[in-house]
UniProtKB/TrEMBL annotation:
InterPro entries: Lambda_DNA-bd_dom_sf. It comes from Paractinoplanes brasiliensis. It comes from the Bacteria. GO terms for molecular function: DNA binding. This is HTH cro/C1-type domain-containing protein.
Amino acid sequence: MNNPLARALRGAGINTVDVAARLGVDPKTVQRWMSGRMPYPRHRDALVRLTGWSQHDLWPDLPRPTQPEASGDEVRIVYPHRSTVPTDAWSRLFADAKAEIDILAYSALFLAEDITVSTLLRDKAVDGVRVRIALGMPDGVHVNDRGGEERIGDGMSARIRTALIGFHPIAEAGGELRLHDTVLYNSIYRADDELLINTHIYGRPASHAPVLHLRRWAADGMAATYLDSFERVWDSADKISR
């Protein structure tokens, strides 16, 4: 099954019987959900908690709010680790950008190797969206330290060099590439007011760490703090000639 709910449950390692037992429903009901039937709201909430996916990732046809919630909460969803973020969430994030796309990471190789995302970023740059990508300096001190922490040695530097090749067409299309030598506590992926923040955990690859999906509501909120961090690293990073 290619239904988002089926993919989410498979990714979380939860089978139909497990879901039925936890939610107190018949396994046939779960099978119908996985085939496309919409669950009741209380069951949707429970499935969000079980999978770590947002309601709109699980059921894309749900209506989306046009105004911020009264609470002004900037946290849309927390994914337990990056591999649970729906594959198409990255392309949908960048596809909605009208003015700015920012990427701050050590390598972001998973995006550079994603032909859908890399082509989208290139097309956005051609269309006049400001695309800025800051990757770790392959021979930098902190990249070397990160490689040691993850026990991959020079593997981190190799990932960055490979990612630079993948991102090169974006630079040719008008995007900006820079290299930084800073300690990253998070990787930042931004499209206008939407951000995916991949936290970093000592000794673990970023793909194993949680991801926060934020929407900026306020000039001094959580999202603004991450955006300020991006600007500080960007200003200190070295430009790469096209």
